[in-house]
Amino acid sequence: MIKYNSWPCLKLENLWQALYLSFNTAQFREIDEMILNKIDLFPLSEWLNFLEEEFIYAIANCSNSFAPGSNKLLWGYLKCIIKDKTCLKNIVTIANACFELGYWPNYFKKSTMIVIPKSNKSSYNSPKFFRPIVLLNTMGKLIEKVIEDKLQFHVVSNNFIHQSQLRGLKFKSTTDADIVLTYFICIRWIKNMSTSSLAFNIVQFFPSLNYCLLALILGKIGFDSRVVNLFSNYLINRKTKYF
To answer: What's the pTM value of the predicted model, to 2 decimals?
Structure first.
């Protein structure tokens, strides 16, 4: 039986509440916005409208085996849909309209959360031994993928991302991190020095992101008001259904 704060979850509503509180431990935590004063204000850069080619490129590498969200639209189906020029043009129009209006449709904010057990655990009596998998609207995910590419190009080309950032960036992987670590170790060996490493595991990192602070950061690094307004709306009033 799953327990939360030493209390057994005897009812289904208690179980969902325990899972929700476990997966959102840092929600509503106060932050100090003054820390952004340490970040230099980057020059304002123009946000260009989406192109059809960007969507074709983004969907090409999407696996057809991935589980769909609440709209039940598999990537394979969406790949067939965008082959129609009219359908592709309409999707691009929706994406551009989102930025012009600073609004992310509520239809895309609804998700399905599947809670699965982590492997190789001796017991499953605590929510921390389970992993939440969030399934989003497939069409919304496609637009998000294109947005991600444009955002990443902007922050990398403007040197806002530190060179030591090797995770979550295109053309960089854990292999690159291994190479960098090996390089530092070998350099120290040449100098007859010892090397040690310190690893941190930040629990609940992404659920802990403060959306107000994130929007302010986007403005700091040179995104125009359309981008800031969209993400201010994108990160609020989201709903998920547990399965």
So the answer is: 0.81
